[in-house]
UniProtKB/TrEMBL annotation:
Its cofactor is pyridoxal 5'-phosphate. It comes from Kingella denitrificans ATCC 33394. Residues 43-348 form the Aminotransferase class I/classII large domain. Belongs to the class-II pyridoxal-phosphate-dependent aminotransferase family. Histidinol-phosphate aminotransferase subfamily. One of its GO terms (biological process) is L-histidine biosynthetic process. The gene is hisC. Keywords: Amino-acid biosynthesis, Aminotransferase, Histidine biosynthesis, Pyridoxal phosphate, Transferase. Its EC number is 2.6.1.9. Homodimer. This is Histidinol-phosphate aminotransferase.
Length: 352
């Protein structure tokens, strides 16, 4: 057997996550990964790298718990939000036996992590308003150990209805974990489910420093859940998941002075998002701009491929959603600086 044949069949069949970075492009304006357009400037406070890091850096755990309004026992620090997704699947889903369920169009990593673990993916599409189809989900729950929902949803930008998520938590009680992916929650903090942890032992919340905190390069995320669930995930996480430099900067990012900076940055993004939405919807090339609660907008064009390619050739790299379920001719754009937004609008105007 050759090396490929030696690898697991599900890995042979795997389509890896198409990260914005892997898709490439020769860009001068990068608005395809929902990153912050500007980098914060932190300095490393220590130099000693000869020792292993703390398995769970205490300053980060406590800083994030205070920020999120939960206790330290409710926090697991992970290597990006993506590691939290993987840990939940690894800890709760038996390969070749159990399933996860998610609701497309949504974030691609739920499927990739499940397929890597040889866990079945069940899908129940969002409805025409990008909301959950609860009855259909309930009918599909056999064998499902984790349901992944994303709110605000990537790539559509909308929040899922709070009452629907509560019903989902209730119908899955004692059967499955409900993972609420709150990667973008800083852009609509009042919608968080963190204050529901005390009511639902099967709730897990994914958070990250990659988006509103402007630290995608740091690779730092969190799972928020009840202590019992956190303890289970702690058993399967790598022994030293958070590098010393990442923990150092993450702790600084969670200090009160920086939280004020994050809030201001969020407000600027919301202002730019409003401006960008108003401009886009007025363009003849654009058919619809979907409402967003996050740092990106989904918009539908007469000819999405044409707009995406024309911008790509100009070095403006957006995220094509044409192949995502029910998103024909749609493009996702990260809200950049005001200047970046202006340049994108000008560029689209020139496409005929
Ligand atoms: C960006 C993102 C994440 C996590 O990203 P990390 O960089 O791994 O923290 C998780 N879920 C969604 C929906 C995202 O968009």
């Amino acid at each position: 057997m050759n090396t490929t044949q030696l690898s697991r069949p599900n890995v042979q069949a795997l389509t890896p996550y198409q990260s914005a970075r892997k898709l490439g492009g020769n860009g001068t304006i990068w608005l395809n990964a929902n990153e912050s357009p500007l980098s914060p400037n932190f300095q490393l406070s220590g130099k000693d790298l000869n020792r292993y890091p703390e398995p769970q850096p205490q300053a980060v755990v406590e800083g994030y718990a205070a920020y999120a309004g939960v206790n330290a026992e409710n926090v697991l620090v992970t290597r990006g939000g993506d590691e939290g997704i993987e840990l939940i699947i690894r800890a709760f889903c038996e390969p070749a036996h159990d399933a996860i369920l998610f609701c497309p169009p949504t974030y691609g990593m739920y499927a990739v992590s499940a397929e890597t673990a040889n866990v079945t993916c069940k899908t129940m599409p969002l409805d025409a308003d990008f909301q959950l189809n609860l009855e259909a989900i309930e009918a599909q729950l056999d064998g499902v150990k984790a349901v992944f929902v994303c709110s605000p949803n990537n790539p559509t930008g909308n929040l899922l209805k709070r009452s629907d998520l509560i019903k989902l938590l209730q119908m899955t009680a004692g059967k499955a974990i409900v993972v609420v992916d709150e990667a973008y929650i800083e852009f609509c903090p009042e919608a968080s489910f963190a204050n529901e942890l005390q009511n639902y032992p099967n709730l897990a919340i994914i958070r990250t420093l990659s988006k509103a905190f402007a630290l995608a390069g740091l690779r730092c995320g969190f799972v928020l859940a009840n202590a019992e669930l956190i303890q289970i995930l702690s058993k399967v996480i790598a022994p030293y998941p958070i590098p010393v430099p990442s923990a150092d900067i993450a702790a600084q990012a969670l200090a009160d002075t920086n939280l004020t900076v994050v809030k201001k940055r969020v407000q600027t993004t919301l202002d730019n998002r409003q401006w960008l939405a108003d401009q886009l919807v007025a363009l003849p090339q654009v058919e619809q701009v979907f409402p967003s609660e996050a740092n990106y907008l989904l918009f539908k064009c007469q000819d999405g491929e044409k707009v995406f390619k024309a911008l790509w050739d100009l070095g403006i790299i957006l995220r094509d959603q044409n192949k995502a379920l029910n998103l024909q001719d749609c493009i996702r754009i990260t809200v950049g600086t005001k200047e970046e937004c202006e340049r994108v609008v000008e560029a689209i105007k020139q496409i005929n």
